[in-house]
Design the sequence.
C-alpha cells in the first residue's frame, strides 16, 4: 500500500508538475495583440480595384484563396509519402445506423 502511494505521488510530480511550470503562449491582455487590418476583398494585391466579374473570377478569387491557404488553413501535402499505409483493424456497423427511438 505504501509503495503504490509513493509511485502515485511520484507520477503526479513528474506528469502534472511540468504542466504548471510551462509558460502560457496565449495572449491574456487584448491590448498586447498587434493590430491587423483585413485586406479589402474588392482590391487586388497590386492595388487595382475589381471592376467586373471576369476580374474577380480570373484574378482576385485565386489571390484570396492563396491568402487563406497560406495564412489560415494551410496546404495539403502533395502526394502520399511512400511509408504511409492504412489498415482496417475493426468495423463497427452499428455506428453508422441512426439511434433507435424508444
Sequence:
Amino acid at each position: 500500500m505504501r509503495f503504490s502511494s509513493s509511485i502515485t505521488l511520484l507520477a503526479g510530480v513528474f506528469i502534472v508538475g511540468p504542466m504548471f511550470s510551462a509558460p502560457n503562449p496565449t495572449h491574456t491582455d487584448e491590448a498586447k495583440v498587434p493590430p491587423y487590418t483585413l485586406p479589402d476583398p474588392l482590391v487586388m494585391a497590386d492595388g487595382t480595384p475589381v471592376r467586373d466579374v471576369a476580374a474577380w473570377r480570373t484574378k482576385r478569387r485565386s489571390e484570396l484563396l492563396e491568402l487563406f491557404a497560406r495564412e489560415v488553413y494551410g496546404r495539403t501535402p502533395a502526394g502520399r509519402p511512400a511509408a504511409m499505409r492504412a489498415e482496417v483493424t475493426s468495423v463497427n456497423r452499428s455506428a453508422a445506423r441512426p439511434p433507435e427511438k424508444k
Summary: Residues 53-73 form the longest helix (21 residues). Residues 10 and 16 are 10 Å apart (CA to CA). DSSP finds two helices and no strands in the chain. Helices lie at 2-21, 53-73.
